[in-house]
Amino acid sequence: MEVIFVLIGVSLLLAGGFLWLFFKAMKDGQFDDQHTPAIRILFEHKSKNKNNTKKPNKSE
Amino acid sequence: MENTATEKKKQQQESCYHCGEPCDRDVLHFDKKNFCCSGCKTVYSVLSENDLCDYYALADSPGQSQKSQSSRNNRFDYLSDREVIDKLIDYQDKEETHITFFVPMIHCASCIWLLENLYRLHPGIISSRVDFVKKKVQVKYRQERIELRALVALMARIGYEPRINLSDLGAERKPKADRRLIYKLAVAGFCFGNMMFFSLPEYFSEARLLGKGFTNLFRYLNVLLSLPVFFFAATDYYRSAWMALKNRTVNMDVPIAMGIVTLFVYSLFEIFLLGQEGYLDSLGGLLFFLLLGKWYQQKTFDTLSFDRDYTAYFPVAVTRMKKDQEEVVPLTRVRVGDIIRVRNEELVPADSVLLNEEAAIDYSFVTGEEVPVGIRKGTVIYAGGRQKGPAIELLVQKSPSQGYLTDLWNHAAFSKEQQKDSLASLANRISGKFTLTVLVIAFGALLYWSMYDLSMGIRAFTAVLIITCPCALAMSTPFTLGNIMRIFGRNGFYLKNSQVIEKIAAVDTLVFDKTGTLTSPALARIRYEGEKLSEETLGVLKAMVSYSVHPLSNRVNRWLGPVIPARLEQVQEIPGKGLIARYKSQRIVLGAASFLETQPKTIKNFRGNKVYLVVEGVHLGTFLIDSGIRKGMGKMLGDLKTRFALHLLSGDQDHERQFFEKEWGREMHMHFRQSPADKLARIQRLQQEGRQVLMVGDGLNDAGALRVSQVGIAVTDDISHFSPASDAILDGKRLGYLPKFLGFARSGRKVIKASFALSFTYNAVGIFFAVQGLVSPVLCAILMPLSSISVVVFTTMATNLLAYTRGLNHKSAATWK
Fold first, then answer.
1. Is the pLDDT of residue B41 over 90?
2. CA distances, B362 to each of B315, B383, B549, B742 (Å)
3. Is A53–B51 a contact, with Cβ atoms under 8 angstroms apart?
4. How far apart are the first and last CA of chain B?
5. What InterPro entries has UniProt attached to this entry (chain A) (predicted)?
6. How far apart are CA B48 and CA B63, in angstroms?
């Protein structure tokens, strides 16, 4: 049963890690703008290759 | 890309490839595409040169019309000024500079795409990032490769000119959004969750199976986890309670702080001295729910600004004349006696005397009335007016902050911090009595039990303090108000904060501004009286009014509809007067009565604006344009006048008094010819009579009145545009809902009271057990969250139900998204 000691320690560390990650994300402004990233992700990133400029039409 | 272009061609014969507006006059052909003006063409050519034409593929005609864009080259010169740059930028080191621009033109995915690809237009730009909702772009650039001035000019060239206003140069920069509450909430939630885990075995006697070592471990871990809760998450409550006590009042946070401290200290006492489990998990839960309520109440409308003063609208720079040479200087450097030049569509930044023969000044920004006023040489033009027509030169009379209008901000009402909170919130008023009652009961229990058993007395005493810690009570207000605020927001009524709701509920007097609030110049009805106009004449008129930017011309233009404009031989605009055109060697005049050579037939019983049409000296007819009253105003005022005292304040002459009296009844007290300071004074007089005043206004001239009244509501037709400082912003289209809003705010009070009753019931039950010393940690751990959650559920359901019955159940999202 002593393994519970270890498990509790691990679980606390894990949960604390998530808390820390949340703080970090907050500080980086991840939650400041919740609208633009949803649009941004749909943009295609063109490769540097000039031949590749033709792209399919996007219809709204 | 090509497909969309051809499709569009089918739909609309000749619409601009860039902005999508019909090309009525000269169509510019470039690259097999149509453009309505050279501005749009330039934007396209810049983009195509840089291989950025995906811009046009992401949305149809994403651009903004460039027709009215100023093309002066030197207008960004002030951005070379070191002082100005330092005020504008966010961050700078040896290599790069970061700056955030407000770009109101951002409206679609193409905008985001183009603005985030700025680096492809100039190698000096490192990257840029758009915040779509706030319409802001943060640009990082290397200051050695591109100057700020060049950067702004570049953005202007592709049609995204940042708006830089005087307030951007203000001394204090806005602090970043306060995230402390979120951190506290996260900490409290984290600790609460884990403490629950460690407490559960104890409650269900599992720990005893595991052995003494585990029990103690769980308790010590709980103590460890409670430390951040007690010393970090709860600090706001100590501070607020302390401040209240220092001011010899009791607010809701006093009993809360009392409960928190008792919970913590007594739990430590139990754990370390008595070897019992303590109430620490309840402490975590308490803080988590309390902070959750606080956070819910703190809903803010990021895109709206509730504290703008005139500086938010004034330009940063003006053109100053120095020995006939133009120079662009920051407005802060303009001194009395300087000569400044103001071009078409530019704002007059300081009270000054006109040096040219005449000017047409549009004071819509100040009064809401958008018909320009003609000004003669030597007359003073007040700051805030906008020139319509050719450039004028002005002699500055007063510094920008001392003007007739801007002087309002030097009024006493603005210098002190808002002291509107005379009406204490409902929760705070009862908390004094509540705290007293709790203390009496607690000490009563202590006295009673200590006659038999002192330790039992202490237990009962602490139990009362713990169980009555007004968790549910403290949550009913934030959740009710927070939810009401969200419902208002969905209906186009945006509040500065939730305290405004309680103030609205107490209002008994309503004061309305006229122009721009009850009437909407944009809705003005137009009608034509006179001889029937031939197709040809209509075409001539169309060509004439298209030439002019005067609002009356625009209205005539709208009335004309899609008429093909004729080719005029000559057309000339006399600012503030009218238009003269020559067509097939006929002289055609369109304009005000004072402008005509002939005496026109007078039109009786019409009080709005008249535009006369005269051909070769013969008066053909007249356009009658009245100050359009917003839809539903009569009904709205009818609803309101039974419940409130109504006042109307207008800066206009009283020639429309009879009309309004007929329209809205005599119950409405009307005051005309009110200057901004008069409006402010009138509100103060009403307040001295003991009235709770709600002011509804729109222009800068209402700013003082909006500020001093208990509740100031700014009405605006474009939610992201102009609104003076206020407590709330109301979408002009929803003004008719005002009675509903007022009624809803009042019933919000009832919901709060009902939820108070609910939580008092919980407290009464809790106290019943507490005075007998029967409160166990399990009971506490169950009762606390249960009461909180049930209060939240009750208030949310009740407010939603009330909103539904009042017809405020719009599911539509906010208009700016």
1. no
2. 16, 11, 11, 34
3. yes
4. 26
5. Cyt_oxidase_maturation_cbb3 (IPR004714)
6. 14
- What global pTM score does this model have? 0.75
- Give mean pLDDT, residues B501-526: 80
Handedness of CA B513, B516, B518, B519 (dihedral sign): positive
Q: What is the mean pLDDT of residues B182-200?
A: 89
- What is the per-residue pLDDT across B200-218, written as a single tens digit (0 to 9) for each? 877 776 656 667 777 788 8
Secondary structure of B602-655 in the HEC alphabet?
Answer: CCCCCCCEEEEEEECCEEEEEEEECCCECCCHHHHHHHHHCCCEEEEECCCCHH
Contacts of A57 (CB under 8 A, 6+ apart): B1, B3, B4, B57
Amino acid identity at B142:
R
User: B4 to chain A: which residues are within 8 Å by CB?
Assistant: 57
Place of tokens 């219809």: A59
Q: What is the mean pLDDT of residues B748-766?
A: 86
Q: How many residues are given for chain B?
A: 817
Q: What is the pLDDT of residues B120-158, one digit of tens each?
A: 888 889 988 888 888 888 899 998 888 888 888 888 888
Q: CB-based contacts of B561: which residues, under 8 Å, 6+ apart? A: none
Rounded to a whole number of angstroms, the distance from the CA of B407 to the nearest CA of chain A is: 36
Place of tokens 């100590």: B238
Quote the distance between the C-alpha of residue B175 and its chain's center.
Answer: 18
Residue A16 is predicted with a pLDDT of: 92
pLDDT digits (tens, 9 = 90+) for B422-472: 445 677 777 778 888 888 888 888 888 888 888 888 888 888 888 777 777
Sign of CA dihedral B48, B52, B54, B60: negative
Chain A, residues 6-45, CB within 8 A of chain B, namely 8, 12, 15-16, 19, 22-23, 26-27, 32-36, 39-40, 42-44
Query: Is the CB of A4 less than 8 angstroms away from the CB of B214?
Result: yes
Residue B625 in this model has a pLDDT that exceeds 70: yes
Instruction: Write the residue in A23, A40, A46 that is nearest to B112 by C-beta.
Output: A40
> Is the predicted ipTM greater than 0.85, yes or no?
no
| Alpha-carbon distance B179 to nearest alpha carbon in chain A (angstroms) | 8
For B365, residues 6+ apart whose C-beta sits below 8 A from its C-beta are B313, B347, B384, B385, B386, B699, B700, B722
Tens of pLDDT, residue by residue over B212-257, are 777 788 888 889 999 999 999 999 899 988 988 888 877 778 888 8
Asked if A1's CB is within 8 angstroms of B131's CB, the reply is no
Which residues, 6 or more positions from A50, have their beta carbon under 8 angstroms from its beta carbon? none
- pLDDT given at position A23: 92
DSSP 8-state secondary structure symbol assigned to residue B562: S
| Cα distances (angstroms) measured from residue B161 to each of B69, B71, B241, B650 | 9, 12, 49, 35
DSSP B674-712: --HHHHHHHHHHHHHTT--EEEEE-SGGGHHHHHHSSEE
Judged by CB atoms closer than 8 Å, whether chains meet at A57 and B54 is answered as no
- Residue B817 clears pLDDT 70, i.e. is over it: no
B363-401: pLDDT as tens digits? 766 665 666 677 778 888 888 788 877 788 888 888 877
The identity of residue A4, as a single letter, is I
Statement: residue B419 has pLDDT above 50: no
Helices B499-506, B471-490: axis angle to 10 degrees equals 80
Q: What string of H, E and C letters represents the secondary structure of B744-806?
A: HHHHHHHHHHHHHHHHHHHHHHHHHHHCCCCCCHHHHHHHHHHHHHHHHHHHHHHHHHHHHHC
Q: Using an 8 Å Cβ cutoff, are A46 and A52 in contact?
A: yes
Contact by Cβ (8 Å): B569, B583: yes
To test the contact with chain B by mutation, choose from A10, A41, A58, A59 the residue with the greatest count of B C-beta atoms within 10 A, namely: A58
Mean pLDDT, rounded, for B764-789:
80
Judge: A26–B179 Cβ closer than 8 Å, yes or no. Answer: yes
